[in-house]
Amino acid sequence: MIQVINRALDILEIIAVDPEKPTSLGEIADALGLNHGTCANIMKTLVSRSYLEQVGTKKGYILGAKSYALTNNDAYRKDLVEAAKSEMEKLTEVTNENCLLAILKGEKRIVIHSTNAEQELQVRTSSEKHVYDSASGRMLLAMLSEPDIDRFIAKYGIPKTESWKEADTVENLKKLLSQFRKEECSLQMLAGRQVIGLAVPIQKESKAVASLSIYLPEYRYMLTDKTGLVHQLKMAAKRISQRLK
């Protein structure tokens, strides 16, 4: 039993050397001098417990969500929230709209902090949504590297028509993500709900670590200074990013 635990930890350590690059079963088994079948069984358990994530059939493995949760995930979230809290309060005060801070976790965008406006009609969104179903999730996906975007699409497919009809092919999805990345801003119109979502990236050392977003009713969006709203959102994200340096 102790030997199996040691081997499982060895596997995690090998993959953690380059956590964003998929490592094949063969590479891991050979590096540890393990029988491929034995190694596969251990890794299957690690995948089922979310300590590893398999990137498509025979494409390799990367660290899973549980591995990050064991390390600095909670402290990392705390640092993000501490850096963002006051800026989000100011942004909500200036725009009088709800503001969200979110991170990427697998196929989900997770809200880790929010500030609420005092409008009679407010837009509420769930704390967890599929990446494709939110402006913040789309922004976070757009800021990944090309190989990571390709891996995401290979694993989770393209959006369903009802959630993002414009992204109906891999080519169209990647074009939209490229546009978001270039503009450092994503816009989402929620069909049937008359809701608009705007999101921008928060960066640390040139890497997007979170997204800052505003959600508001479509009628208020149509009446507001759209350029000014995006500017306020980007400036708040920039100040938060500077605090993370």
UniProtKB/TrEMBL annotation:
Residues 2-65 form the HTH iclR-type domain. One of its GO terms (molecular function) is DNA-binding transcription factor activity. It holds the Pfam family HTH_IclR. Residues 66-245 form the IclR-ED domain. SMART domains: HTH_ICLR. It comes from the Bacteria. One of its GO terms (biological process) is negative regulation of DNA-templated transcription. Keywords: DNA-binding, Plasmid, Transcription, Transcription regulation. This is Transcriptional regulator, IclR family. It comes from Runella slithyformis (strain ATCC 29530 / DSM 19594 / LMG 11500 / NCIMB 11436 / LSU 4).
